[in-house]
Design goal:
2 domains, alpha/beta, Hypothetical Protein Tm841, Chain: A,domain 3, 32% helix, Rossmann fold, six-stranded mixed sheet, 8 helices
Length: 332
């Protein structure tokens, strides 16, 4: 194993310290918790937006703390959910009295721990609501989930719910638009290589040099098929076909596109994927309104990519267009 780390057991704490040192204008750490919070929180009258999950997916989730997006993020061990007390501490830290929305990806640990935190908050009269993101169309059930997994489409939920909260909407309205986003976003990914969890010291699955996994999850969960590597256009078409038919996306729809790298895929390759996305959408009469290309939700050093499509209407377009200023997502 070759990694630029100190002790494997300390990677999360070391990373969070480095983030705070680099971005004090965006994040501060809660004492005694692996939670990062906006220095501006709580903001009077504003619904707080929190998210979180296992580490190893950076910049998700703490990289999206900032104006127009998240107010806090809870960080678990690598690929492991934060404990309930972390979610609860983050909720208390951002609550102004207007309530808190938790954006949770559909993984068993995240669901259980966030639900316990919600119950803890209710006991202390902190209004908390949850939305569950399950955008991955690859598989219905996996090692970590009952139902579909939550992957990079979660970033659209952060963006749109965050924009709604900045406008002063109440908790019910922020939850409504977050759920609307979940209902209209679909994603699917693929992997070329495994990744190495630091404390394990070895790859969490194996692929032959000429193999790829279609539908791979962000923790290394199995996808829907393993096949020989082929051209980028063919790989992209396979992912898009399943995404498009699932909602379905139809001729005349407007969409936002997110092409997400999983940690070790050059931007050159992500833009090649995007070229084919634009061609397929044009052929099908699907209008691309906005495109985002980069690393938003990674899997340590896994090579691969995911594609997310979000179907838009006027409300979602306006919220997507709203300004955002976080470490990893900036929009004027």
């Amino acid at each position: 194993m070759k990694k630029i780390i100190n002790a494997p057991n300390n990677v999360v704490e070391d990373m969070l310290s480095g983030m705070v040192a680099a971005h004090p204008q965006h994040v501060r750490k809660l004492p005694d918790y692996n939670c990062l919070v906006s220095p501006l929180s709580p903001i009077a009258g504003k619904v707080g937006i929190i998210s979180g999950g296992g580490s190893g997916h950076e910049p998700a989730h703490a990289g999206f703390i900032g104006r127009g997006m998240l107010d806090a993020a809870c960080v678990g061990n690598v690929f492991s959910s934060p404990t309930p007390d972390h979610f609860f501490a983050a909720a208390k830290a951002v609550d102004s009295g207007a309530g808190v929305l938790m954006v949770i990806k559909n993984y068993s640990g995240d669901l259980m721990n966030s639900q316990m935190a919600e119950e803890m908050a209710e006991f202390e009269a902190v209004k908390v609501a949850r939305v569950i993101v399950d955008d991955d169309v690859a598989v219905k059930n996996s090692t970590y989930t009952t139902g579909r997994r939550g992957i990079a489409g979660t970033v659209f939920v952060h963006k749109i719910a965050g924009a709604m909260a900045v406008q002063g909407a109440d908790l019910a309205e922020v939850k409504r638009v977050a759920e609307k986003t979940v209902a209209n976003v679909r994603s699917m990914g693929m992997a070329l290589t495994p990744c190495i969890v630091p404390i394990a010291g070895k790859a969490n699955f194996q692929l032959a040099d000429d193999e790829i996994e279609i539908g791979m999850g962000i923790h290394g969960e199995p996808g829907i098929s393993r096949c020989k590597i082929t051209e980028a256009d063919e790989i992209t078409s396979v992912l898009l076909e399943k995404i498009i038919v699932d909602l379905p996306f139809n001729k005349g729809d407007e969409v936002a596109v997110l092409v997400n790298g999983l940690g070790a895929t050059p931007l050159m390759e992500l833009y090649i994927v995007n070229k084919k996305i634009s061609e397929v959408c044009a052929e099908k009469g699907i209008k691309i309104y906005r495109t985002y290309v980069g690393e938003y939700m990674t899997a340590l050093e896994m090579a691969g990519a995911s594609i997310s499509l979000l179907r838009l209407d006027d409300e979602l377009k306006a919220l997507l267009d709203a300004p955002a200023d976080s470490i990893a997502f900036k929009q004027l």
